[in-house]
Amino acid sequence: xxxxxxxxxxxxxxxxxxxxxxxxxxxxxxxxxxxxxxxxxxxxxxxxxxxxxxxxxxxxxxxxxxxxxxxxxxxxxxxxxxxxxxxxxxxxxxxxxxxxxxxxxxxxxxxxxxxxxxxxxxxxxxxxxxxxxxxxxxxxxxxxxxxxxxxxxxxxxxxxxxxxxxxxxxxxxxxxxxxxxxxxxxxxxxxxxxxxxxxxxxxxxxxxxxxxxxxxxxxxxxxxxx
Length: 226
Ligand code: ATP
Ligand code: ZN
Known about the structure:
Layout: E1 8-13, H1 16-28, E2 33-35, E3 41-44, E4 49-54, H2 59-64, E5 70-74, H3 75-87, E6 94-99, E7 105-112, E8 127-130, H4 133-143, E9 148-151, H5 159-162, E10 167-172, H6 176-180, E11 183-192, E12 194-199, H7 207-225
Parallel strand pairs: 1-4, 1-5, 8-9, 8-10
Antiparallel strand pairs: 2-3, 3-4, 5-12, 6-12, 7-10, 7-11
The protein binds adenosine-5'-triphosphate and zinc ion (ZN).
């Protein structure tokens, strides 16, 4: 049985692209915090809603383990967890509750500039470097294409030049990084932005009301931003 809790805990990115906009959004919702000295935990002062400041990649796992109740994370990160769980026939543990309108980017396949792109079938037998192995495998399977996925945790865009892979699948916003590495985006696997991620099943303790309150306020803030 799940533990009964009377405070809501939200995981957000500690720094990086989503850290500041996430905190700004929560502040706009009327939340304020006292930060712990190690800058890992923020205690909610006016409402019993606390923050955990973490690496974005850790957020889906924290939700899955029930360490946090909500998270602000890129759809790309959440979808990678979902694809990984689906591949192992595990149930979904988190879902998108709201789209937040910042952190926009695409998960794109990019090929060397010199390639004459004719479509996904061209990837057959090729090596695809990515930090999103489950999403890429799921997509390849859907397309009926057999290709090798090379897992890299960073600097994916230099893999073709290093001979580690033929093409890449990576996050793109302006495309400048791709261009600088003589790569060209040819198709989009996922349109991403920051989302509020939460439980698949509703809370049955005090967190239910706190979550409803937060969602009401967030909807008000997001409507004004449109
Ligand atoms: P952390 O230290 O938390 O692991 P990180 O380096 O993995 O940080 P960021 O680069 O800050 O993460 O990206 C966080 C999220 O921002 C991404 O998962 C994605 O949803 C979004 N994002 C928007 N534009 C881009 C982009 N051009 N490149 C990478 N991520 C982007
Ligand atoms: Zn990360």
